[in-house]
Amino acid sequence: MNETEKNVTYSYTALKLEKIVENIEANRYNIDELSEKVKESVELIAFLKQKLKETDAEIEKLISEIE
Question: How many separate domains does the chain show?
Fold first, then answer.
């Protein structure tokens, strides 16, 4: 992962995914673009899931430290 990818936020990624979904639903992509956008969406979803897992683990750790 390069430095730019490390600095990408959950909110930015979620917004990017939302835009792709909106465009898919509005049929704004041709068949060639659609395949690429679906692949990109899968990657974005994987990033979002990982970010949620990391955040959950961090919160759990903080909670356990104050108990």
Answer: 1
